[in-house]
Amino acid sequence: MTAERLARMRQVLDRRQPDLTVIMAGVHKEHNVSAVMRTCDAVGVPEVHAMGVHGHLAVKRTAAAGVGRRVPLRHCSDIEQGVADLKAAGYRILGAHLDPQARDFRQEDYCRSVAIMLGREKEGLDPEARAVCDGFIAIPMLGLTESLNVSVAAAVILYEAQRQREQAGLYDSPRLDEATYQRLLFEWMQPKLARYCRERNLPYPALDDDGHVRSLETG
Predict the structure, then answer these.
(1) Would you list which residues are annotated within the binding site for S-adenosyl-L-methionine?
(2) Superfamily per CATH, domain 17-167
(3) pLDDT in tens, the chain (219 residues)
(4) For FRET with 134, which of 20, 86, 146, 208 sits at 20 to 30 Å CA-CA?
(5) Which residues are annotated as a binding site?
(6) What's the predicted TM-score (pTM) here?
């Protein structure tokens, strides 16, 4: 069973997309935060950013034990600094917002480094958030409803990103750097031991082919 779990964890890590991420700029409702993170996990987004909010966002308890470990939520109350850091890393920031200049979300190129910014549940992106975006995308609405729920909008956009990336072959081979890959593999396979090591500033021990900690005797 452990060997099967190790194989499953490797399969997931092999498809993580280190240059695709999501920014929740003011999203604060627990069920929406959790739903966005679950979608991110499903399409291979390795981490999510919460910006422009004070304190730590709550991840719904039923989801925290799983998705919260697989897709860490990075907090930054200063949205300008948080976005500047992502831009310095090469990300283009696309705001999901009903701006007059917004493009149909299907017309964007999601195969390059991109961060999708989502705004508050009712108000959308505030002026501070809009000011740091490189462009805007919108989901066409053909009925009287003006917008989708933020977690639904995130899913629609992310699955378009997944579709484009699958066509480009970006899921065909591992894209995480080796150090990150091995760190995540250990943390997913041995969460309690990983926490113990982090608390004591100890290096992670090696794993064997079944995902168990390799004994000193066997090297």
Answers:
(1) 139, 148
(2) SPOUT methyltransferase, trefoil knot domain (3.40.1280.10)
(3) 588 999 999 999 999 999 999 999 988 788 889 999 999 999 999 999 999 765 556 565 545 457 777 999 898 889 999 999 999 999 999 999 988 889 999 999 999 999 999 998 777 899 999 999 999 999 998 887 877 899 999 999 999 999 999 999 999 999 999 999 999 999 999 999 999 999 999 999 999 988 889 864 444
(4) 146
(5) 139, 148
(6) 0.90
